[in-house]
From TrEMBL:
Name used for this protein in its record: Juvenile hormone acid O-methyltransferase
Matches recorded under Pfam families: Methyltransf_23
Gene3D superfamilies on file: Vaccinia Virus protein VP39 (3.40.50.150)
Source domain of life: Eukaryota
InterPro entries assigned: SAM-dependent_MTases_sf
Length: 280
């Protein structure tokens, strides 16, 4: 993703997932007085600063002393990291540009906990990425992540790539349609990958989800904000690309009007949520 302002404005659906999943994930983890945490793929930093960090720092009851948490939030996109450093700065969060796929990514520490929210569907070789995360965890360290396994937007990418007008800009489309999209049980596939790396998998679950957007325009803006191809489209063709993208998406949507929101549309998608531990 290349436009942090747009992503920050139109990531209501990623924020909703974080608000629902993070308290659950964190409640299942152990807590130490001092913890070093990695957030892989922090994007604009909103969820790192406003949802993950407070959940990790919260005092659960009077007997539990407040713990000291430092979060290293990384993203491969420099524009995202620059934005996060300004908009979501905190003395206990360090935002850094880093690609988890590059072995030369060096940290001067190992992590007690690793999180990754809505990222793994961007990564083709998930086994390699998770192998790197295994190396970066301390023994008995915990990992939790969730990502989109199925969503209509992947069918839209495929349709757009078959249109001769857009095909030259979408020649790497297969890298952005995750294998899970074609799988009968993505959570079981992920459990197998995690187990083969050496993780003790505590949970790997498929969740069917829905998200309601107030209007088609709102939904298209959100999909464009996370669209991996739009930066390759020449500026004079961008509005035409968006219009064709909208037409393709319309065939896969359904209207779900309510009294308060008569133009709203609903999108079905699936999430894989994983919790595991490094035991050696
Ligand atoms: C959909 S955003 C999710 C952002 C944030 N975690 C959230 O919940 O809103 C996915 C992010 O993963 C980042 N990303 C993709 N591949 C990566 C890699 N190999 N290493 C680090 N970050 C990566 C992208 O740059 C993008 O900002």
């Amino acid at each position: 993703m290349y436009d942090p302002d747009l992503y920050d404005k139109y990531s209501e659906f990623q924020r909703r997932d974080a608000k629902e999943f993070i308290p659950y994930i964190v409640s299942k983890m152990t807590r130490k007085p001092s913890e070093v945490v990695l957030d892989l793929g922090c994007g604009s930093g909103f969820n790192t600063r406003n949802i993950l960090f407070p959940a990790l720092s919260e005092v659960s009851n009077k007997e539990t002393p407040a713990n000291f948490v430092h979060v290293y939030a990384i993203d491969v996109s420099k524009t995202m990291v620059d934005f996060a450093c300004i908009r979501y700065a905190h003395p206990q969060i360090t935002y850094t540009v880093a690609d988890v796929m590059k072995d030369e990514t060096e940290f001067h520490c190992k992590f007690d906990k690793i999180f990754s929210l809505h990222v793994l569907h961007w990564i083709v070789d998930q086994g390699k990425a998770l192998g790197r995360l295994f190396e970066l965890l301390k023994t008995n360290g915990e990992i939790a992540f969730y990502y989109i396994s199925k969503a209509p937007v992947f069918a839209v990418y495929d349709m757009m790539s078959r249109n001769p007008k857009w095909a030259p800009f979408l020649n790497d489309v297969s890298e952005f349609i995750p294998k899970s999209y074609f799988s009968a049980d993505p959570a079981q596939d992920m459990r197998d990958i995690m187990t083969s790396i050496g993780f003790n998998v505590q949970e790997s679950s498929n969740y069917s989800r829905k998200f309601r957007f107030d209007s088609v325009e709102n939904m298209i803006d959100a999909a464009m904000a996370a669209n991996p191809f739009v930066h390759k489209i020449p500026s004079e063709l961008k509005s035409e690309y968006k219009e064709d993208f909208r037409k393709c998406f319309m065939t896969l949507l359904y209207y779900a009007p309510t009294r308060d929101s008569p133009n709203s549309v609903e999108v079905d998608y699936s999430i894989v949520l994983v919790r595991g531990q490094k035991r050696v």
